[in-house]
Amino acid sequence: MSALSNSVPTSQADKQMLLELLRESRERFLSSFVGVSDEQSRKRPAEGCWSVLDTVEHLTAAETVMLRLLQSDRRPRAAGAPNREQGFLERMGSRARKVESPEGGRPKGRFPNLEAAAKQFETARAGVVRFVEEANEDLRATEVTHPHPLVGDVSAYEMVIIIAKHAERHALQIEEIRKNLVNG
Length: 184
Hints:
- The N and C termini lie far apart (54 Å).
- The protein is 54% helix and 3% strand.
- Strands 1-2 form a two-stranded antiparallel sheet.
- By secondary structure, it is mainly alpha-helical.
- Helix 1 (12-31) runs antiparallel to helix 5 (114-134) and helix 4 runs parallel beside helix 6.
- The longest helix is centred in the last third of the chain and has 28 residues, at 156-183.
- It is elongated.
- It has one domain: Four Helix Bundle (Hemerythrin (Met), subunit A) (Up-down Bundle).
C-alpha cells in the first residue's frame, strides 16, 4: 500500500470518536438482549420476521465481513468522493426505513445459541476496535475495495461509522422483537 503510506494518519481525536461510537454501540447492542433465554431468542414475533437470535446472527455475520474488508487491501479514495460521515451518523442507526439484508448477511442458523452468536460478535467488534487503534493512515483517504451493498464505495472511516450504527439499528430491532413478543 505504498500509495497510502504518504497520507497523514487519522487524528487521535477522530480515532477516539470512532472508538467511542464502537464502544457505545457494542454496549447498546449487547444490552438489547440481556435476559433473553435461548428459547425466547428463537421466537419470531410474526411470520417472515427475524427472531432475536436471527438478528444477532445477521449483525455478527455482517460485522465479520465488514472487518475483513477493512483489513484487506484498501485503495486511495478518489478525489472529490463525497464525504457522507454526517449522514451516516444521523441515519444509519435508524429503523425508519426497512432494508433487506444481502444474501450473505441473512440468518442461516450459523450459531447454536445466543451465547455463541454474541461471543462471535464480540470477537468481530474487538477486531474493528483494534483496526482503528492500530491504523497509521488517513482512514478518510482510503476506501474499501468492495462497495457497501446499500451505499456503494465508502472510505475506511465511513465503514467504521457504518459498523457502529449498524449495531445500533439492530439493537432497536431486537427491542422491537422483544416488545412484540411480550405484547403479541
